[in-house]
Amino acid sequence: MPSIILEHVTKRFDKFCAVNDLNLEINDRDFITLLGPSGCGKTTTLRMIAGLETPTTGRITIGDKVVFDSEAGVNIQPAKRDIGFLFQNYALWPHMTVYQNIAFGLENLKWKKDKIRERVVEMLKLLKIEEFEKRYPSELSGGQQQRVAIARTLATAPKVLFMDEPLSNLDAKLRGEMRTELKRLHADTDSTVVYVTHDQLEAMTLATKICLMNKGVLQQYASPLTVYNDPANLFCADFVGSPTMNLIETTATQIDDQTVKLPLFGKTLNFCSNGVKLRGEHVYVGIRPEFLRISADGALEGTAYSTLPAGMETTVKISIDGMILSSIMFGAIDYETDQTLNFDIVGDNVLLFDAESTEQIAKGYITVQE
Amino acid sequence: MKKTNFNAKKTANLLKSYFSKPSNVLLIFFAVALLLCTVYPIYALLSSSVQMDAMDSLMYNQLFGSALKKGDLSFNNYAMLLFGKYSRAYSVSFFWRPLWNSLRLSVYSSLIAVVFGGSVAWFITRSNIKCKKFISAVFVFPYIMPSWTLALVWKNVFANSQVGTGVVGMLESLTGICVPQWFVYGIFPCSIVMGLHYAPFAYILIGGILRNMEANLEEAAVILKASRFKILRRITLPIVMPALFSTVLLVFSSSMASYAVPLFIGSPGNFYVMSTMLSSLYNSSYSGQAYIMTLVLVLLGVGLLGLNQWFTGRRKSFTTVTGKSGQVSYVKLGKANWPITILMIVVLTMVAIFPIISFALESMCRIQGDYSDLTLNYWFSRTEINEYNVRVESGILFNPTIWKALWGSIKLSVVVALIVGTCGILIGYAVVHNRNSKLAHLVSNLAFFPYLVPSMAFGAIFLAVSSKLTFLRGTFSLLVIVGAIKYLPFASRSGTNSMMQLSGEIEEAAIIVNTPWIKRMTRVLFPIQKSGFISGYLLPFVSCMRELSLFILLTSSGTLITTLLSYWDERGVTQISNGINLLIIAIVLLVNFVTNKLTGASIDKGVGG
Amino acid sequence: MKKIVTVLLALLIVFSATFALCACTEKDTQVQAVIKEAQDMTWDELLAKAREEIGDNELSIYGTTSRVNEDSFTAKTGIKVKVSQPNDSQIFELLKNEVGGNVYGADVILTTDSFNMVNNAMGNGWVENYLPSVYKNNIAEGDRDPLVCFYYNRAFVYNNGNGEIDHYISNVWQLTEDAYKGCEVKSPLDEKCTMNFLITLTSPAWQQKLADAYKKQYNKDYVKNDKYENISLEWIDKFIANCTFVNKDGTIASDVKNGKAGSLGFFTISKFRSVKGPDLTICAHEDVEGFSGMLFPMYIMLTANAKYPYAACLYVNYLMGTEGYQAVFGNEAGAYSGNSSIPLTETALEDGDKPLNYWQSRFVVEDGQYISTVYAKYYTMISEWCASKK
Question: Which of B389, B468, B553 to mutate to test the interface with C (most CBs of C within 10 A)?
């Protein structure tokens, strides 16, 4: 079945390196998101797999077919890779009706007229756009256009689906709806999906696996929860999650194999883990906002910088020792500005990063030394 | 051995994958074809300038007492034309002064074209001037008409009793004002007439950018309290700069090669330019010197093209100002609106309508210039006319020779337009697809090259080619080939522009669903940019319909309507020649109008995109 | 090995040279033979031969004038004609490539460029002369080889202000005086015949005539000065400085017609028709000392490699006859057949035209033979004067 394998894929534009030595294995029926800030090479990667862009070096395999190999000079046409591609601005052909847009690919496969009709109707139904059959793309709203684009992509039943930020042109509400639909479609069609986005929330909610990239280099390739809970490095920790992880810079002293001493907030904190080895004394401590728990008897003391209630949860910005930390509390709470707050660092998902390499060195919990 | 095998296979694979992309195949094809079409003429010019032909050697032998033979290599041409081997005065008056005059003339006419065409473009796109439809429709007329018609108008208006033989022109008979000689003949009128003739280029190119420029860019400046003038100077001008440069490039090289205007109103004032001297050298026995002049013209054009390339290359980011401006707030002209509108209409009437009316009148005069005795006989007579100076088998509309020539011209123009327009689209496709490659740059520059070779020289070069390739000699195919190469620049330009406007995804979406290339072109790309592409067909058609100097050497006089026109003109039968001229203009306008109504394409889109 | 190659190469060269030579001489003699034979044929005999020879093909003609593009020949003979209109120098460029390279291009050429005709085409044997013996006696001896098909004229003409002035020009030297500034002329740079007219003026015979006219005008003998090699050059230089270059005959005619009394122009009197009016006077009719215009020939020749020599001869024969002349010029003034037996039409005479010999005695007749001996020198000199005119 069509797993996709990228080996040492590199793409250079003149001197600029868009993708650098990328290795990736995408399993059958995965829903992979390529995630990263703009300009990180995610779209380039997607287009290389689809065959719309030619890598500088490397090798790409789809299923059991090598579709690109710079060494052997293999470069298979996109059309022969048996894929579907959903474009950011849909790329609907403005001079064709919805029906013609969807039917176009089937005509190229030399399907019979009535079979095409059947399939198009099926697609129209699937995406709930039956009534727009005779309209032109310019007569449709953004969401409707999006559905037509999806229908067009799915009509030929490709085994692999590529999507390039397909929801970025939609408003927030519609985007939410479409996410649900896409996830459902993935399940219904049994296809492999590679999905490009810069929206970490989208990546978290949709993907079975996230491929997080920065500056053309793969940062982490893992399931959404792994990326969230166990980020490989500072970039991953910072990029995923909202509000973002509290990253506190400090110096650390190794106590023993399980303990590191951290002078923080005017106190001495112990970072405990079942195995920690400092590489240098300069470290970052990463604490997700949900692990900063405000309570009257908290061991640490700060002041309320500002409070951002969102209904279901509230983000509290705590000012302490010249730093601003984020904390998330369930429910709507409102603190007065500059009110004194006590809080604890809870849970065993506190992370320690080496400042120099930015890599994560340990996961553990924090105790406050009295 | 195994290794080399592997390498060979790898190379073969690489080549296979390179050539499996139609855009690459096209790029290579056009690169080779255009290189041939470029290198050969330059080679031909160079070799003819140093190799003595029979006449050259005869002349130099008589003049300098040398013993040159046909085929000898000699730098006599260069020495005499450029370096005063015969006399300083000869070099100065045949080469250096005409060069200086040509440069001045081209600079002035480019400036006039840019200022006039640019301001009309600005008025049309950015102000609330009245009669926009009329102004923008009529503004392209001067380009459709032969440039000498404007020269004639100039003379008819400004001639006066103080100049030449004292023919009283319109201005004097209306107001009694006599303008001085330099106003009627010489560089001043030449610059103005050519500036007006080429102003449509400026209008189309600059107007195109202004139209596509986000109004927000200007509005943002308004909010920041910039004055109108400051906005123009700091925002608008820099943004239209590339278009401005393209215009200057087009007008400058057209002016350098322009022949008719300096001949009509330059020569009587003893104002000579490169092209007039080039023509007389061509027809003299010093044709080798004419080749040098052509080379210089071509090299100047290439230099200018390079300069333009360098400039627009440096400011690449500016050219990407596209996207339709939604809400355009027009500048209110207030009290000045009507005066400006009226001035515009008067100028346009003189420049665009008046010549057409005068053609119509002249085609009805029994005696040239006597408007009291008019007849429609020259148009509608079914029998032979034999009166005064006219002897013709029947009136223009019932004359089989004229119809045959007209049909010949239309056939040629259509075929040329089809070939050129299609090549233009393909070049545009190939270039846009390989946007950043050196080869694409090369191809798009090469495609512009024929524009830099004066028509006269172009015709002469192909005459020489065809006398070697005899199967082409005098054939319709030769005309097609020559026309196709000459008008490629327009088509490749509009093709590239239209392709640029298509997002790559549009085609990729079709690639993914396994659409063959031909089908992608015909079913997807062409229909979307239909009007832009058809405009690319229209411009070569128009240019071809009214082209004379390119074809006259290559065909017999009854083949094309323009050569027939020159036949009647030579006979001095102005009634028929003016009538034919009117016929050509009418057909071009009609074709433009019908195409515009049917497809939305128009000449102005062809250049501006 | 090397030797064998050399020998083979040499053989090849010799063989091909012989072959080319044979082909060449054979072809030449063929056209010449046809011409010899055709000279004494009657029209009908020639027509039969020509038809048989050309069949349904076209007779190819290069003419510097479009006027010979007449269907009347086809109507009369059933032989199709194709006329191309390269200019003078291109005709010779084509002859060089085509006849020189033994490639068929044209059967007949018509050109006014006597320098090229004598020096280039005839000198290189690219053309053959055909003189129909029926017309021989009506063609002046000097016009027989190369055969002059037509003469054209250019005359000095002035605007008489509706009878206000007469005898405006009585001596050709007046044209060099300030009072007569602004005579409109086609530039010798643009037109070979004007140049050839000026060069012809430098011949000893014309030097003498100009000297005589000078004496009559200024009542003193011309004294040669340092500036000019001879009297003709002085006249030419001053004339050029005095005139205005205009690019079309028609424009000159209408400028003079619509201009002030005393406006001067140098143009063909065929233009009289298009600017009809009583206010133009041809100087020649009022006897001018020196000369008052020019005549220049249009030659007609067969190419040395004509494909259809009989048809070509037939065409020459046709153009030299009354019917051919009238088909080309009809009632027009200003053009005269080399065949003196062809009269001008009534209409032409009404326009003020006169027979060829009238003009020959008053005008400068282009002298191809003389021109070809001094061409480069005077051509270059005169064109420099024209180009540096201020």
Answer: B389
